[in-house]
Structures are given as C-alpha cells and as structure tokens.
Amino acid sequence: MKATLPIGKGTDAIAYDPMTGLAFSSNGSGSLTVVHEDSPDKFSIVKSVVTEPGARTMALDLKTHQLYLATAKFSATSTPVPGQVRSRPSIIPGTFVILVLGD
Q1: pTM of the full structure
Q2: pLDDT digits (tens, 9 = 90+) for 42-65
Q3: Taking a C-beta distance cutoff of 8 angstroms, is the pair 12, 69 a contact?
Q4: Of 50, 1, 2, which Cα lies nearest the Cα of 26?
Q5: Which residue in 52, 64, 83, 96 is deepest, having the highest Cβ count within 10 Å?
C-alpha cells in the first residue's frame, strides 16, 4: 500500500525500523518526520522533531533504534559553480556534527 503524508522540505533520506513500525524522513529544512505503520494500509504521523538545518543525511541503527543525522553550519552565500543549476552554501570549517536521536 502507498500513502502520502506531509513531511518537511528538502528530504534526503528515509529509514524504516521493522521492530517499531516507525519510518523516518530526514529533511534539510531542519526537521525529522516520524511516521507509524498502524496497519498494512494505514500510516499516521507520530511527530515532527526539530533537528538542525541541513541535517538530511541519515542512518538508522536497527539494534539500538538510534538515528544519526549529519550536518554542519553553512555560509549564507557561495560562489556559483559553472554548469551547476543552483549554487549551494559552503560548509563552515570545524562545524560538522552528528546528531544522535533515540530513546
């Protein structure tokens, strides 16, 4: 079954934990959407967690049920790259972090 639910903007990764029935969407807008599989045909949003802007790359540890999200602080502007549709902000050196979310 397919379902469409509202999630944050800039989604990069999703993960599903079969033990808890929870699905996660990490969003570059600075949020994590948590969805529960209520039944094979029904899904509901459990909560939206505030993370950090840019925290969209994610990994789920199925043993500990912890989520890991990578992010950093970004510069306000960047130099356009030839051939690139839009320029991306540069990472500010020394600001890379891993956010750990779980019980």
Answers
A1: 0.80
A2: 889 999 999 998 888 999 999 999
A3: no
A4: 50
A5: 52
